[in-house]
């Protein structure tokens, strides 16, 4: 078996590139080809997947993982580890192979169940399924954009907690991205932001294989990527990606460039090692097939049997990561001890942050709000009140902070030279904003939030969904939540957005009706551990209507009886956000006419649907005529309402009250619509 | 009144730039300031809007509209006009002023009702509200990206129909964009695509005012934009945007660069003319206020009263567009006549295309499909069958044409040097793809389509919504439509997407259950004039189930009884797409157990909800227990179903049949769930 060690260099006819660097040792070659072999076998066994990417990117991954990456396989959560993001998530077998080989809790049997039901090796990486996977990737562009958030978090924590002689937070954020990642707009936004922010500890390897699914990138992607990234303010370098030592040198160089993020453009051959499919899209998204598997293994010096073969020498080499990692973490523990001795307060605060413990001080600071103001302004009051108690809550707006009111006035802006600032100016980049906020939250010790107009959830929907899928409790603040925003008109007025986001699994959308519901909603958002929360807030003023006990507010049940009927209800009004106020007036009008009317405030479907059946039925009983009132699409409301006062067309440009009246959101019309149900 | 003509040059203290170019004539200055005055007054009267952009961009707009733009104000639909897109749609008063001044059907009274209910001057431009507005803008980045599609259409039509000596199709696509436009990822995708495609007749002016809503772009946007666009392959030039003659020269130069799109980076002062707000974000998104209005008018030499003042000399100058435009169209008519004489067949075909007349040949070619194949493959059979009959139907995929099967095999790829190709390789750029497809459709004579995986509707949602809002019948083909796609797992499995898109006003989402429904869906899509259609297709094979009369298929009613119960139905199964097949088997099993069961196929909620109440009630009567079966979120189904077999969590990575079974999509489970309703 070990004889293949002696045949690492194979040459093909027809100008096929040599299989390994001339200076590589046999052991390096063996290790690189071991990664390839596992990827080949797992994809073939699953009869599904992407072998080409791992085969081409194995050398760069080997260089990064064995020569640079700071990590402890036995403690994937060690806080000061380097973060590694496989943005090209379709190459999942690359990271699964690396995790297995370097000693993470991922067995060969796990690799053998690649892409099977309930396995820990799903088709694309998922952070909550596999130890060592930092985030879910697959939707292109998300990885690199989320990594920008991780690098922001590192810079923020370093600037906030490090002290002279105590570099407690000091790690890199690495990643591998593909052509597809760099074609997606979200990565352009994120790269521009990262360049502006001079995130020097962000280093990405670009697997430049010139192949995408439909063929050569010549048909679509002929831009000068290096020049583009230089325009963003990145350090760039071209290397031969098949020469792992060249990659190694490029990473070393990039680590020394501390004032700019780095893109290493590594020219690779997709499907390297496959005699008939390498360098073509045929190796991208389908198994090689049994014959080509054998030919590839022969070319790479891998035994045909057993499959999933790992040579002991390669295994030993990779497993060095376990000792090295343990030593690194131990050294860090000692350094942290010294830091804690010198700066006990900071160390305690950081430790709590790392543990995800927000403490109680913020809860005590949570304000009741009894003013007739927009819920976006109430949100501001909340954030201002709790900011000092939450030193690692960081975020901002997509160039709308003057409208979303998400500024923390006790802190500076997060900018080069001012990385301890908690306020992030994301620019007009909603998509990168939410991706980065996810990265900030995933990093740990920090909690990320982003804000914009509600209509622009459309611009960042893939990152919103990924937060939900990753069980990442990012906080999202979206204001100007309906036709009630007025004159900006239909391009800016959300209609279907409430429905479309309520339908998203594991997203808690909350549309509060007043200041106190807004404060209670912020509480829910901050306490959430596995669910992102979206606060949907009004542009226009809303009167105070609900309990001022914001630490124990009925909003927590999702929907609740705000005003009970004077007798057994003949009709129920159920409303959310800005429509609760007029519904309350309509309920009073109906009562005045002798119609017992219940008013239910329903800020969160997500929370309501987690209540007991008994509670749900008692709040919104089936037999009573029920009118929903919400300035958005009626879509979905049939579940709870007999009829809906809603907006089932695009909006219109007019002053807020005119637009609302045009669509029937008046006290009189609510009452009439309710009476029509009797 | 006319004396202000003599005071065009005003200087401010504090290094304020001079108000006009030293070489500008008084008349030019007057015209430019007239645009500014109308914008100032309209925003002030509405007490809402964005005055700063029109005030800063007036010189470049003046240069473009009076020295270059080929258009006929009295016939905004003249086919060979230059297209003009105000990508920075918040500066809507710029285009409204220009349209009014150059003689379009937009009166001073229209300007006075800016942002009011049912006015023709909504807050952001809307193509179907205002003659001369090519598309709705406001959501940033959409304008420039859609304009790329218009330029594609022009190149395609020119390559297809022009003959030696007969340049019948020969116009530019111009636009003005802002910082925000260029920060949005969609514009990066579109610019990279436009550079690759070498769209030389696309010319954008970048209103580089260094100000966004939250302040100076120094806080967010410090990249080298020119260098980035050069990396994409664009011609770029920097000019002083306040010097309209410099802009004029830059446009002239850009028109001569025919092998690359052009970006003219015009440095401007936002709110130019406002002594206290120019150059700051204070002039961006709010009225200047009465005092500053007066000060600005004084500075610009505009009389304070009457408001909305248009000097007759300026009016005369702008109105030259009417004569010039009429002459240009007349000359084109003559040229078209000569072309028609020489090439009668091509001329007739082009004329039909311009009129939006698809003819009948494609209908006759529409195939019946009786094979057990995936609906994505059925879609391919349809497209292949009708391609020759629809010579101006162009589109493609976002690097997934091998999976979406939207290639037209009788035609080449649309590439530089091959602009008559009907197949567009959009790259991994879903967002720019749908925006460009919208531009292709809006251009006229061409019909645009795009395709990708259904999950990636999230990536292009703003452009999907804009198609719906603009009443632009773009065709969208999205495949791999559920957990049924299998191993790629939750990042690739749509769950909430059916619900979230059904909720969108004026989008016709059709999820066909077999080949014949797919053919009928394509028919609906092609016949639609004001509604975009989204075809949602399976990855996996589906048996033929429905009528082969695809030209008169019951799918046109949105939902219909596919199999009637043997007696009065005791239970109704309503299903869509890939779930109709198992529901049919379940219905048979129920019937075998003596339970009369109706099966309703419901491919399109949009179409069903446009049927008569009688039809709807007879198809899905309220009183009968109804089970919906769809491999997606249950959200919304309460409207039609008593219970839903659905997927209300993220998916999982497993082979298709395993994933489907895991979520209960088996014949047995459907039958059991139905029986539980009895």
Give a verbal description of the structure.
2 copies of one chain form a homodimer. Chain A is α/β, with parallel strands linked by helices and 678 residues long. Chain A folds into 3 domains: 235 residues, Thiamin diphosphate (ThDP)-binding fold, Pyr/PP domains (Rossmann fold, 3-Layer(aba) Sandwich); 192 residues, Rossmann fold (3-Layer(aba) Sandwich), CATH 3.40.50; 121 residues, Rossmann fold, CATH 3.40.50. Chain A contains 24 helices and 20 strands. In chain A, the strands form 5 sheets. Chain A has a 6-stranded parallel sheet, sandwiched between helices. A 5-stranded parallel sheet of chain A has the order 1-2-3-7-6, sandwiched between helices. In chain A, helix 1 crosses helix 2 and helix 7 packs across helix 16. Chain A is elongated and about 90 Å long. The N terminus of chain A is likely disordered. Chains A and B meet through helix 6, helix 7, helix 8, helix 15 and helix 17 of A and helix 6, helix 7, helix 8, helix 15 and helix 17 of B.
Describe this protein with a few key phrases.
homodimer; 678 residues; Rossmann fold; 40% helix; six-stranded parallel β-sheet; 24 helices; alpha/beta
Looking at the structure, the CATH topology of the largest domain in chain A is Rossmann fold
Oligomer: homodimer
**Bulk shape of chain A:** elongated
- How does CATH name the architecture of the largest domain in chain A? 3-Layer(aba) Sandwich
Largest beta-sheet characterization of chain A: 6 strands, parallel
Count of helices of chain A? 24
Find the count of extended strands of chain A (DSSP E, 2+ residues). Answer: 20
